[in-house]
Specification:
Blueprint: H1 8-20, H2 24-31, H3 35-42, H4 50-60, H5 64-88, H6 93-100
Helix pairs in contact: 2-3, 4-5
Length: 101
């Protein structure tokens, strides 16, 4: 994937909360998390857990899968960047089996 996916916190910070005209503290209160935790997500210092996806999905009406997919794409891209050299050096199992025969 050439372009870095958008962190879900950016979507919340730039689109969702401003469009709903809801303060971070009120959102945090309504979904049952601390304001500090929600701020970490908005600053992209923390990700969306399955538990938070359930809370956001219910509150915003778009379901937890939306938030989890977005977080998964972001996390996978990050991991690919960190591990690209290591992963390139792994010989796929189907190639190992043909060499052993």
């Amino acid at each position: 994937m050439p372009r870095k996916p958008t962190h879900p916190g950016e979507i919340l910070r730039e689109d969702v909360l401003p469009n709903l005209k809801i303060a971070v503290s009120l959102c945090a209160e309504r979904i049952g998390v601390s304001r500090q935790h929600l701020y970490k997500i908005l600053r992209e210092e923390a990700g969306i857990s399955p538990e938070l996806a359930l809370r956001l999905g219910r509150f915003l009406g778009n379901g937890p899968a939306f938030w989890l997919r977005m977080q998964q794409k972001y996390d996978l891209w990050e991991a690919e960047q960190r591990l690209s050299k290591d992963v390139e050096n792994i010989v796929p199992l189907h190639r190992q089996n043909t060499k052993a025969a």
